[in-house]
Records
---
Amino acid sequence: MNSKDAAREKIEQNRKPLVDLSHRIHAHPELGFEEEKACGWLCEMLDGAGFKVERGICDLPTAFTASAGAGPPSTIACRRSATPAATTSSPRWRRARESRSPKLLTTPA
C-alpha cells in the first residue's frame, strides 16, 4: 500500500471522530490567533492518535506541530478563526507579522 492509500485508510477509519471534532470547533467559534479551545481539542486528538505534539510554535500559543514516524514530512494547514477580519486585526497576528518569523505564513493576498 502506498502512503496516499495508507493516509486515506486512516482518515476513513477515523471519519466519525474527525467529523465530530469539526462540528465541535464549528459550534465554538473563536477569533483569529485566539483559538485556544480548537487548538487544545486538535492537539488532544493528535496526541491520542500517537503524534508527538509541540504547542506554541512561532511564539503563537495557538500554533502547533504534530509529527509521527519517519520519512518525508507531510503538511496539513488548517484555518480555525471565526472571521477573516479578526485574523488580520488581532494583536497577536500583528506581533507575529512584525516579528517576521520565517516559519510564519505571510498575509493572504
---
Amino acid sequence: MTMRRALQIILAISLIGVAFSGTLAYREFFGTAPAATGRCTALGAPGTVLGYPPCVYGLVMYVALVVIASLGLRSGKGSLERPGAQPASSSGANRTTVA
C-alpha cells in the first residue's frame, strides 16, 4: 500500500468521524436535550469531561486528523519505502555476481 492510499483511507474515515461527532456535539449544544430537562449540564456534571461532553473532544481529534491527512496528501509523498532503499525485485536482474 502506498502512503497516498493510506492517507486517503485515513482522510475518509476521519471525515466520517467529523460528521458523526459533529452531529452529536450539535445535538448536545443546540438540540432538544438540554431544553427538555430545563437546564444545561453543569461543569463537572456526570457525562462531561472538563465541562464538555466527550463528543466535543472526538470532533477536535477528527478535525485534526483531517488536517494532517490533507496536508500529507498535498505534500505528494507516494510510498512507504525508506529514502535511499532499493526496491525489492522478484527477478534475478539485480543480482551481483562475483567473478
---
Amino acid sequence: MQFDEGAWVALGFAIFVILVWKKAGAALREMLDARANKIRNELEQAEALRKEAKAQLDSFKSLKKEAEEEAKAIIANANSAAKRLQVDRLQNREMLTPKQCLVYEVNL
C-alpha cells in the first residue's frame, strides 16, 4: 500500500486537527461554560432588581394615592373654612340676619 505525498499531508493534517481539537476543545468548553454561568448570574441579578423595582413602584403608587387623598381632604377643609370665614365676614357687616347665616352654614 503506497501513499503519495498528498495522502501523507492529508493524514498529518487530520492528526494535527484531532490533537489540537482535544487540547483546545477542553479550553474552549471551559471558556464557554464560564461565560454561560456569568450570563446566568447576571440574568438572576437582573430579575431580582426587577422585582425590587416593582415593589418600590407599588410602594410609591400607594404613597401617591394616600397623598392625593390627603390633598383632597385639605382642599375640602380649606373650602369649608373659606365659606365659614365668608359667612363670618358677612355677619360682621350685618348684611345677613342670624337666620340667613344659619341657612347658609347648613348648605356648607
